[in-house]
Amino acid sequence: MPYKCHPERLHFLHTNIYRASSASGMIARPAFQDPLAYPTGGFYNPRLSEAIAQATDKEPGMITEEPLLFEISSPGQTAVAMPDTDVPPVRPEAVIPRALLADAPPPLPEIGPLDLVRHYTALAHRLFSIDQQFYPLGSCTMKYNPRVNEKALALSGVADLHPYQRDEDVQGLLEMMHRLAEYLAEVGGMAEVSLQPAAGAHGELTGLLIINAYHRDRGQKRSKVLTPDTAHGTNPATCMVCGNTLVTVKSRSDGRVDMDDLRSKVDADTAALMITNPNTCGKFDNQIGDIAELLHQAGAQVYLDGANMNAVMGITRPGDFGVDVMHYNTHKTFSTPHGCGGPGAGPVGVAEHLRPFLPVPVVVRRDNGTYGWDHDRPKSIGKVRSFYGQIGVLVRAYAYFRALGAQGLRSASEKAVLAANYVAARIRHRYAMPFPPPYAHEFITVPDFDRTEVREVDFAKRLLDYHIHPPTMSWPIHHCLMIEPTETESKRTLDRFCDVLLTLADEAEKSPETLRTAPHRMPIGRLDEVAAARKPVVRWRANDGS
Ligand SMILES: Cc1ncc(COP(=O)(O)O)c(C=O)c1O
Fold first, then answer.
1. Could you tell me the distance, in angstroms and rounded to a whole number, from the CA of residue 203 to the centre of ligand 1?
2. Which residues are CB-neighbours of 453 under 8 A, at least 6 positions away?
């Protein structure tokens, strides 16, 4: 008898039957009929279909529910085998005041080793990760991070070092840092780079402190910092933290700086312009040479938020278009996963006239070929980070540079730009684009299905059903989705993403409820996000069963 099932549910079952049966060696790959249903390939297996039907009849709930450890607890089970103690036993009452002792042991779950492993493995399979899912997370550059980088980091010559070791004992690491600083300087067209800052925003802070120190050194008191309204949010925040006065510059409808507005705001009190280029709308502002000239004529400096360097590496260099200071988000451009607050490093590069102000110490190569630290910079803004900086992230960046080489870096940027423009071109007839192409490495769409009251969050939730991580949402403009496919995704994955987005556009028009109530294939559905934030239930209580 043919089995009937809602397509949503069928996909879900396919996925999980695949897991169950591949674990038992029955099949090697998923067998999906719906080309949108899964990013990897597969073959159709009628026997498997039959198995799905049987499984549904027998155990409809078997796939979705993973109980708490407390719920699978069984008295007497344990996952550890402790050796007998070889010291005399001590009664807790003899050493701990009575008032501090509990009346009964805590109700911890008692689980055998295999159940424990299976529980956590089941939970791990529910996670989204770059190894399993596509992350078009705008401004976060969630690309593939080569495993070889992790290997480099795990080498004993890196992992086993102590920051207090003598310079003579860590020559290899110092050489690597020196080279990395040189590579970054080359890519940015900068005279020298400090590796100290621990994140992009920290790089901005360092850069603006350098600019302020430069003006002070010249006997000038300049307070104003201009930022285009397309700047990354950390730019104005940095400006406030540094005690500068923030002045916003308007951008035009094509996403580029409004030159008339800029001209009207640059004056003798202007310390700097902080510009993100390519900006957060995914547009590269090709007026940047003129912009820099305007600022320099007024005695001001140009700060480039270089977090989006993955769009321009090997194609153009900030130093060549007039930038005085910039930071790099190594954790976006040069691997290390960025989204969701992972570790970072935001090295800062400066033009020749700002070298004296760099944070101390700076790693240098001495005349005798050894490496060490230069502390002798009397005008330095001081130290901004303890020890050597975020070594783990810097080692990954170094490995990435070495693996790709100059041509590889350029090619990475070309592919990032191509991927963004390809996706934009494929969906443009259904998704409104507030800024016109061409784009750099990312773009913004404001899905316009107002009649149906489908919002950006509904698209984001529905994408989860297709095993695609939601893009960045509602920023930098209201109701937008910000999409950054990155250079490491295949055309196949990009095509599937576009197909899914087009399917969602159909759904938004024909069955908006499907989007508004998504996700349908996740372990849990739409959360009451306010309640989850304000009244989170994070504790299991033995007695109330909650
Ligand atoms: C354009 C831009 N500037 C600055 C930052 C801040 O970097 P971080 O998160 O490392 O502080 C980001 C982060 O994504 C960014 O995209």
1. 9
2. 512, 516
CB atoms within 10 A of CB 221: 10
Nearest residue CA, atom 7 of ligand 1? 200
| Integer Cα distance of 312 and 321 in angstroms | 12
Q: If you ran DSSP here, which 8-state letter would residue 163 be given? A: T
Select from 496, 446, 477 the least CA-distant residue to 34: 496
Q: Number of C-alpha atoms within 13 angstroms, CB side, residue 8? A: 12
Distance CA 25, CA 41 (A): 18
In angstroms, the CA 363 to CA 293 distance is 32
Q: Among 208, 234, 275, 483, which residue has the most ligand 1 atoms within 8 Å of its CB, making it the best to mutate?
A: 234
pLDDT tens for residues 67-115?
889 989 999 999 998 899 899 999 999 999 999 999 998 888 999 999 9
Ligand 1 is surrounded, with C-beta below 6 A, by 139-140, 199-201, 232, 234, 276, 305, 307-308, 329, 344, 346
Domains in the chain, CATH or no CATH each: 31-79+133-138+442-546 (3.90.1150.10), 148-402 (3.40.640.10)
**Secondary structure element (H or E) that encloses residue 275, with its range:** strand 270-276
- Ligand 1 atom at minimal distance to the Cα of residue 331: 10
Q: Residue 245: helix, strand or coil by DSSP? A: strand
471 secondary structure, DSSP code:
P
- What is d(CA 146, CA 149) in angstroms, rounded to the nearest whole number? 6
Calpha distance 480→472 (Å, rounded): 8
Looking at the whole model, is its pTM more than 0.90? no
**Residue of 202, 206, 232 to mutate, ligand 1, most atoms within 8 A of C-beta:** 232
Determine the Cα–Cα distance for residues 17 and 29; give it in Å rounded to an integer: 11
Distance in angstroms (rounded) separating the CA atoms of residues 28 and 38: 15
Query: What angle, rounded to 10 degrees, do the helices at 171-188 and 391-427 form?
Result: 30
Instruction: Encode pLDDT of 344-392 as tens digits.
Output: 999 999 999 999 999 999 999 999 999 999 999 999 999 999 998 999 9
